[in-house]
Write a structure and sequence with these properties.
The chain is of the alpha+beta class and 177 residues long. Helices cover 25% and strands 40% of the residues. The longest helix has 29 residues. The model has no long low-confidence stretch (mean pLDDT 85).
């Protein structure tokens, strides 16, 4: 599945870039189905900043029919990103914490100047493999494949699409002065 996001934002490009690169956990209160984000590793190499964030999804968003098969660790993942200061862009990949082959997700994120504001651009590739979800027998994975795919897609894809909405909500909540 390909997901493309191109959304205008009410903040300047530098502010959005630094928010995404340096302060992603500040967006948690504005993200629909994320419980928390932890920065687990960060290193700088000249113009590039390498970051690993650990994301924890909200299990209440998992369809009730498959909750007994899905453990909270399945809805947490590592986000490996390399940000370039010069281009205000990142390449990244998501890595499931468990079920290493439950999904594959990678992409690019960039922030561009759009007058006094900015535009968030994301190109995302997402593949879901429900047959690789730990604890689900293969015959059940086949039977519940659509629900499992929908649950994983529902957890990941909207966060990608809603990142711009979350940044807008973050901007609206900022004190003016």
């Amino acid at each position: 599945m390909k997901i493309t996001v191109s959304e205008p934002l009410p903040l300047g490009a530098e502010e959005v870039f630094h928010l995404l690169r340096d302060d992603m956990p500040s967006l948690v209160p504005y993200l629909y189905d994320i419980e928390r984000i932890e920065v687990t590793d960060r290193s700088e190499d000249g113009d590039e900043v390498h970051i690993v964030n650990l994301w924890f999804g909200d299990m209440s968003k998992v369809p009730r029919a498959i909750r007994k098969f899905v453990k909270p660790d399945l809805f947490s993942w590592k986000d490996h990103a390399t940000w370039s200061t010069a281009t205000r862009a990142a390449t990244w990949r998501l890595e499931p914490r468990v079920g290493a082959r439950a999904f594959e997700c990678s992409g690019t994120t960039s922030v561009e100047v759009d007058g006094d504001t900015s535009k968030l651009n994301m190109d995302i590739d997402l593949l879901i493999h429900p047959e690789n979800v730990p604890g689900i027998p293969s015959f059940l994975a086949r039977k519940f494949r659509p629900q499992i795919e929908a649950a994983i897609e529902k957890q990941i894809a909207p966060n990608m699409r809603n990142l711009a909405v979350s940044i807008r909500r973050f901007a609206e909540a900022k004190p003016t002065g």
